[in-house]
Every structure is written in C-alpha cells, then in structure tokens.
Amino acid sequence: MRRLAVLTLLVVAVPVTAEPNAAERGEKALTTTAFIPAFWTPRAVDSAWKQWGVAAKPADYDAALRDRYGLHPAPYPNDGLPMGLRKARHLFGTGVGADCMMCHGGSVMGTSYVGLGNASLDIQGLFEDLARADGIAKTLPFTFSQVRGTNEADGFGVYLLGFRNPDLSMKPSWTNLGLRDDTCADVPAWWLLKKKRTMYATGATDSRSVRSLMQFMMHPLNGPADFTKHELAFRDVQAYLLSLTPPKYPFPIDAAKADAGRAVFAEHCARCHGTYGATPTYPNRIVPLAEIGTDPVRHRSVNEAYAAAYTASWFGKEPAGWFVDGKLLRWTPGYQAPPLDGVWATAPYLHNGSVPTLAGVLNSKARPNLFTRSFRTGVDDYDRDQVGWKVTELAAPPGADVPPVERRKVYDTTRSGRSNAGHTFGDDLTDAERRAVIEYLKTL
C-alpha cells in the first residue's frame, strides 16, 4: 500500500503537458518558420546604411534600421531581427528573407502587434536598398509602394502568378495577368477575419481559404512540393489568425458620450459595419461603388485574366469551397464594409489609407488632401483628439529633385489610386454626434 501511495503521489506531482492546440501551433509556425528562401545575404542588412547618404553607421543601428524602413521590434524571438525579416536558407548558405509580418506586423503606441497592418512600412525602399547593399543594381520589376505605409499587395499576386503554371511549377516566360501598381493598399488587421465570410477589400475570396494565405510563398525557389508541404501548417496559421483579438484603447473614455455614440452608430452605421457587445452581428455587406464612392482603382485592379489564372491554379482548387470544391475568386460590385473591432488602432482609413483619422472618416470635408506624417508609432505620433495619426498638411507636392524615399512620405490624394473621396455617410451628422460616435468607436 505504501509503495502504491508513493507512486500515486509521484504521478500527481508530474505535470501533464497539454498538446498545443491548432492556434498555438499556428502561432509557432508563423513566428518561427521561414516559408520562403532568403532574398538577401546577412551583409545586406548590416550594410544597408550605406544607401542612406550618411557618413557613418548610426550608433543604434537596429533602431535606425527600423525607423528607416518602418519596421517594428518583434514581440517573439527573431534572431535580433525586426518583424518582417527572418533568417532563411539562401543559395549561398543562410540569408535574410521576408515573412508575413513585414506587412501584417504593426505598431501603435510604441507596442508591436502581430496581425496589425504595418502603416509605417517603406517596402519599396527596403527592397531597393537591401538589393543594392548586396551588390545587385537591378531595379524592381514594378513599384512595390507608391506611398509609405501602403503597398501593392495585389500587384505582388498578379506578378508572381504570371510565372506559374496551374500546378505552380515555373513557366519559361512571364504572362502579364493585368499587373498594375497604383492600388495603394492599406493592410487590414488580421483579427477582423474571424467575423468575415469573405476577405480582401472587394470581398472577392472566401475568408476560410487557407491556400490564399500562401500566395506570398511564390518565391521562384519554391516549387509545387513546398506548397503542399506547408498547407497543413497554414491550417494552423489560419486558426491562430482567427484567435487574435485587438488591443484595447489605452486612454480614458467618456462613458456617457460613448453611450450616446452607440445610439447614433446603431442608426447610421450598423447596417454596414455590424453591432458590437455581448451579441455582435456583422452583415458581410459589399457596398456598391456608386454608393460608397471611394477610389475605384483597387476594384478594377484584379481583372478577368488574373481571376481565370487563379481559379485554374492550385490556389483555386482548394477543397470545400462555397458551393462546390474550389475557393474561387468572385466579382463583387464594390468594397466590403469591414468590422470595426479595434478600429482606433488601425489608422489610416479607407482601403487605400487616404484618411489619417476617424474624424476625417466621419467628415469628408475635414480630410487633408496633401499631407505627410512621422511614420513613427509612439504616443506623441498618435492623435487622441481626431483618433488616428497626426499629420502635417502640405501646400504643394514634392518636386522631382526630392529623393524618392522622401517623396514616398507624402500622400497626394490627387494621384491614381489615392483619392480620399467617398464614404460621406457621416457628413450629415452634427459635430456633437460625430464626436459621440468617435468616443463609442474607442470602446470596440
């Protein structure tokens, strides 16, 4: 009996380690796995400063690198690299590559979050400078970003798929599937996926598609076997994305004003953006272009040639689609009104990032037309009154003599893909009603 009692105590004393669930496995896969080979050698990151026009390497080089390209500290072990960069296999050993968090790892109030769109990123400058630092003078095949904080994600998909056969093997020559580089995409927050039946600005794809999350893997050194190898891991990655929650607004909220704003929101906004609280609803509504009135370039950017190629490819043959096997691209008449969970943290606004604050979203007459900002994410850079990023309005756009890295810091709403028109639904509200709605939005 004594031996049995001791054995029982030993069994009780040994902790039972639970198997990680899908979301935990997905987080580990996303933050530790290099799904694409490296673009650059390690020396490219170490010597990028030589492209900045400075006489010596900055003293706090890690911070200077992040500031230069709009990258953020990784809130997970990452070999000393910022979010978005990762050690990966290279033709000549170990190098540095890119991962999902380059665009989907952002910062607000100086805190990094996986799943927050990176509204500071200069992806154009990053790829150009690291290539030059590696001794490669070749220009990029298309413009990766027209204005800092946005990217041409749709162009990446169109460009890369043009090199692939339906089975994702490489073709001998590139097919132009309608490439354009003026969509100026603002990256949405991953935590919104849990409510959405469709994704992308136009709502063109099933939000439960796993393979669509893997399009970034179309690096020329990844073959068809790499996609099938990692599909199971991306099912876990998707589970992780669906587990994410937004950060809470960090400043005091006027409860009485927020309560008044809830009623205004319910009357004027909930039809498209849903309701919140204990029993939330979300209509997954696609708002026609004629009704929403926002810039139409993104809507036009994915044409029939790309849709046909995507549908015929491995990406379009994913099992368990909407009605038949295959999660296909579909045409929609406009843009999807997103859920607004954590909206305070997701500035700038509209699908092209043309409106820097919530106050501007609710009053189209107050939107700046030509502006710049610090592209830092600290407390001093955040506009608590207007809710969004502080900006400096400009009288004239930068001239041709201004370096491209500085020109990309200016948002010019007269340029293609960058209009700040539309979404005028708040224009008829009174100032008091708008202030109340903004206060309520802080609570979401």
UniProtKB/TrEMBL annotation:
> Where is each Cytochrome c domain found?
256-444
GO MF annotation: an example: electron transfer activity
InterPro entries cross-referenced by the UniProt entry:
Cyt_c-like_dom, Cyt_c-like_dom_sf, Cytochrome_c_Peroxidase/MauG
| Phylogenetic lineage | Bacteria, Pseudomonadati, Planctomycetota, Planctomycetia, Gemmatales
Query: What residue range is the signal peptide?
Result: 1-18
Q: What is this protein called?
A: Cytochrome c
Q: Which PANTHER family match?
A: BLR7738 PROTEIN (PTHR30600:SF9), CYTOCHROME C PEROXIDASE-RELATED (PTHR30600)
User: Which terms are listed as keywords in the entry?
Assistant: Heme, Iron, Metal-binding, Signal
